[in-house]
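> run fold GAF domain-containing protein
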Amino acid sequence: MDAQRIKDDDDAIRAALTALKTTTGIPVAMYGTLISDNRVQITQWIGLRTPALQNLTLDTGAGVGGRVVSTRRAAGVSDYTRANTISHEYDKQIQDEGLHSIVAVPVIVNREIKGVLYVGVHSPVRLGDKVIEEVTMTARCLEQDLAVNIALRSNDGEGERSGAKSGRQMSGAEWEQVRSTHSKLRMLTNRVEDEELRKELEQLCEQMVSPVHVKQTTKLSARELDVLSCVALGHTNVEAAAEMGIGAETVKSYLRSVMRKLGAHTRYEAVNAARRIGALP
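> ok
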C-alpha cells in the first residue's frame, strides 16, 4: 500500500510539474515534500542544470520553501541571494545552480501542508503576477489530485476490510483526462437542441463529479458551469464565447457572477472553488 501510495502521489506531482513548465514556459519546476519537523526536501524537479538542489532538505523557516511552510502562504524573490525577505542558508546551492528568481506556493490538503511547488529561472528577470497565478492554480489542482488519491485509498481500505477487491487508482494524468472530458462533454451538451437529450447529457456531467461531491451551498446555473468548464480547459473569454456560441461580454458576465457566488478573486480561484464544492471534477 505504501509503495502504491508513493507512486500515485509521485505521478500526480510529476504531471503537475510538466503542466506547469508547459503552461508558463519557465525552465525550472520543483516539488518539495514536507518531511519530519516541518522540513522540506526537494524530491522532484524538471530543468535543473546541476545536482546542487536535488534532494536538498530545507529547515523550517529557511529560504523560500521554509518561509512558505512557516507562513502557509506563497512567496517569491526576484534576486534570491540579495532578497531581504528570506534567510540565506542555501545561497551556495542556489548560486551553484545559477537560479535568480524563484516563486514557491504551498500545497495544502485537508488543512495540512503536504509540500511546496516551485518555479525558477536562471536569469535576473522578475516573475510576474501571471506566473504566480499559474503556479497557484497548478498547486490547487495538485491539491485536488492528492485529495482524490487519499479518498480512493480510503475507499480501497474499506473495501479490503469488507472483503471487496480494491481497484486500480487513477494517476494525476488520468484524473486530468477526466476533468478535460467533463469540460468537453459540457460543451457538447451546450450544442444539443433536443431538450430531453440535453438533460441526459447534463446528468452524465453530474455523475462524473458525484464521487467527490459535497454539500453544495452555492447554486451555479448550467451556463455558469459551462463557462467554468471552458476556463478549466484554459480557454480565454473569446475562445469560451466561440465554443459556447455567445458573446465575449456575456461570458464575462457569467464569470463575474460565478466569482461573486464563490467568493473568488480570479478565474482560476473560481475553478478551484467549484472543484472544492463538487461542481467540477
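The chain has two domains: 2-151, 171-276.
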